[in-house]
Design brief:
rod-shaped; Bact_OuterMem_StrucFunc; 261 residues; OmpA-like_sf; 60s Ribosomal Protein L30, Chain: A; coiled coil; alpha+beta; 2 domains; transmembrane helix; 11% strand; disordered C terminus
């Protein structure tokens, strides 16, 4: 065998030896590369992915809670809106009733003014609205006989006319009140029997009520009598020219709390 042949043979023997070395090293290199990739990229990406999932779940939970809160607030808002609408409807109803009541009051005053027109023009009657009542005030001089508690014939005619006007289409109770004038203007004969304004006004109110029942055909069940002495609940509503000593016939207006009693 020549030297050339030996060299060729020796080279062929060396090739398998190098191949086997690379076949052993390459898997190790691949393993190292894989571990490096996993450590450098996959693990952080996995952690980031899990973090995003957790954040998404938390966001979803918060979204559900916000939706529930929004739904609750929406329900409360709807309830408040319904309540406000109800209150507004009640307010409008009350306002309409008030306007209707005012219209009815003006209607009643107009009707009574027409029926008592002559008496009002003569100054023997005054008309006012006070405390839920329409009040007709009559000077004591137009009702009673001089220096007496008895109702005069002219006073009886006047009382019956007023009672008829107040009772037209209305069966509401009639409240008879009497207001006493200043003591120095009261006849001595009356002061002897009724020394106080309370006693005198109560006696005059009772006298008028008896005439309304006995002479004017007003049922006694509809009548009440009260003496106000010198304190007049309707005084502020009456004209200043109305005499201090007077008789008042009052009827509750329909639709008022006074009329409901």
């Amino acid at each position: 065998m020549s030297m050339g042949d030996e060299a060729i043979t020796s080279g062929k023997a060396a090739r398998p030896s190098g191949f086997w070395r690379w076949s052993r090293v390459l898997p190790a290199l691949l393993l190292v590369a894989s571990a490096t990739f996993i450590a450098a990229y996959y693990v952080p990406l996995r952690r980031a992915h899990m973090l995003l999932i957790a954040e998404q779940q938390s966001a979803n939970q918060k979204g559900k809670e916000l939706e529930q809160t929004l739904s609750q607030v929406r329900g409360e808002l709807d309830a408040k809106t319904a309540q406000l609408e109800k209150l507004e409807a009640e307010r409008r109803q009350i306002e309409d009733a008030r306007r209707s009541g005012l219209d009815r009051i003006e209607q009643i005053k107009t009707e009574l003014s027409g029926k008592l027109d002559k008496q009002i023009k003569k100054g023997v009657a005054a008309l006012a609205v006070a405390d839920g009542h329409v009040v007709v005030a009559l000077p004591e001089s137009a009702v009673f006989a001089p220096s007496r508690l008895d109702v005069s014939p002219q006073g009886q005619v006047l009382l019956c006319h007023v009672a008829s006007a107040l009772s037209a289409g209305n069966e509401a109770p009639i409240r008879v009140g009497a207001v006493s004038g200043p003591p120095d203007q009261t006849p001595p004969a009356l002061l002897h029997d009724h020394p106080t304004p309370w006693s005198l006004s109560a006696a005059r109110a009772a006298s008028v009520a008896q005439v309304l029942e006995g002479k004017c055909a007003v049922p006694g069940a509809r009548l009440s009598a009260v003496g106000h002495a010198g304190h007049d609940p309707a005084g502020a509503a009456l004209a200043e020219s109305t005499p201090a000593g007077r008789v008042e016939l009052a009827v509750a207006l329909p639709g008022t709390s006074a009329g409901a009693r």
